[in-house]
Design brief:
Layout (H helix, E strand, L loop, with lengths): L1 H6 L2 H22 L4 H18 L13 H4 L6 H18 L2 H12 L4 H16 L4 H19 L7 H11 L8 H12 L11 H17 L1 H4 L17 E6 L22 E8 L2 E3 L14 E6 L1 H10 L15 E2 L5 E2 L5 E8 L10 H4 L1 H5 L1 E7 L19 E7 H5 L7 E10 L6 H16 L5 H14 L5 H7 L2 H20 L1 H13 L4 H16 L4 H19 L4 H11 L10 H10 L3 H26 L4
Antiparallel strand pairs: 1-4, 2-3, 2-4, 5-6, 7-9, 7-10, 8-9
Helix pairs in contact: 2-3, 2-20, 3-20, 5-10, 5-18, 5-19, 6-7, 6-8, 7-8, 7-9, 7-11, 8-9, 8-25, 9-11, 9-25, 10-23, 10-24, 11-26, 17-18, 20-23, 21-23, 22-23, 22-24, 22-26, 23-24
Amino acid sequence: MTSFIAEMDPSQLGMWLTFAVILVALVMYTLERLTFELTSLGVICVLLVFFHFVPVVDADGHNILNPTRLLAGFANPALLTVVALLVMGEGLARTGVLEAGAQMFFRYGRGHAALATGLAFVAVLVVSGFMNNTPVVVIFIPIMQALASRLGQSPSRLMMPLSFAAILGGMVTLIGSSTNLLVSGMLIELGNEGFSFFQFALPGAALALVGVVYVIFVCPRLLPERALLTNAIAGGGRQFMAEVAVTEDSKFHGMQPRGGFFPDLKDMTVRVIIHEGESFMPPFDDAFRLSDGDILVVAATRAALTEALKGEPEQFHPELGQDWERFEGEDGAQRWQVGNQVLAEAMVTPASRLVGQTLTQIGFRYQYHCVVLGIQRRSQMIRARVTEIRLEPGDVLLMQGRESDVESLRGNQDILLVEWTAAEMPAVHHATSTLVIFAAVIGSAALGLVPIEIATLVGAGAMLATGVLNIRQAARAIDRTIVMMIAAALALGSALQATGGAEFLAGLLLSAVGDASPAVILSAFFLLVAVLANIISTKATAVLFTPIAVGLANGLALPIEPFAVAVVFAANCSFASPVGYQTNLLVMAPGNYRFVDFVRVGTPLLIIVWLIFSLVAPWYYGLI
């Protein structure tokens, strides 16, 4: 064995070492004994050390796989484009742009179950073609939960189809998925042309349209009706008491009850109306009309209050005016303005000094620099203004304030911050500028005015410059797991190419298919990549098989494009396993899924996409 290794060509030794590292990495990624980041770092370190002592030299005697080459993945344009898209996606999510668009489709389908579901999935399909899938799925999860509730279904019927629709939509454009960008980047590194924005849009659209039919009409029927493990995120169905001030320019002004109640406030229950100093209880006189100065005491869920805050935040505390972030004015008084606001819940402790006092007596806003929007008390019906309620042990306060002020409540002996409930408020005042920036990025890249990496990086910078995001929020949007896995996969791809591993595997595939036609070879290659994409990361699969696709095409003397596009589509076919794609992991808890659910429902979709590709791609690329 020792003599065999000693006689082996260094490039062959490097090739087999690369194969061994790939195999170990795939096992580690699948078992998740270590974090993805640590496994990826280990891969890079092993390659750096090995090829330093066993170099792969070129004709001039230089080491091809030097640290500069192996670490180039961290500066790869495709990776930087993915990072910029993640930042831009955070900006779109934070300003409420995605949710507003999704709610529009939701309203159009109201009253028709099939139409509402279909429109929601079509919306996901379209949006996913132009931005990273992860924020799209995050935004649509609560919307699909609400849709399931109104349709009387379990969310388990809609969560997995949501992920599948996002994956299918990502097959249409270059930026629809980070996988697409990685394949394009690898092609450039291998000396070939990368993809243009809509280069594979037509075959991608064919796969997406057929796939979404399965998603809409078949998936929900195959999925089980399962109760949720928990209530909805951040508050569930608990009702908070809140008060709303009616002003002349608010949406409440002029509202009239019908049948004693307010049907326009379907997400809020009006408990008391304070009109000209008098309190009125339901049922209300249908002739009554809300006017400027009226105060509504309402019961609503956190989700409903959050939705109302996005439109008119000043209606919950008119004395704060239009501005909500605390700062000191020239007269020394406290002022507030919208910006970087967080919504969180805190519970009054049994030994709290606040017990028995009202928020006004406590001076809560000035003592804690947070505004209390609502109070929840063990399902009791309260018919008093929020500022007049005397706090009791166990009361839950729904608060809004700056993140630093909310975090300062940790360790407070009087109120216990419920850590997992903290969530940033949508910065809707930046929605227009966010849309303009995003449209400019998409337009300039689609028209070929500038390369996609330039457009996205400038777009991310513009969102920072205009205040849509700050540096901390942008940094938090960058997924270090994605960065490390892409860098490691690119390093392995370089090693495969430099050591001849890609050509070796391409030769094995050619031997296996024998004298089969190009269409059959392309179909078999697609199926192989698709199956592996459900076992390992889609990104690792894409990067590792791109050089193999190039070698296979060259060995057959065929165009590279159809085989590279096969890698794009097949690597995205992570339908039969939750571990292959991040959006599948995101919907597991809301849908209360098991691993076998993905196998049972996702495998037919993978087969459908494979069959459609096998019919469309050879015809589209002239291989038949």
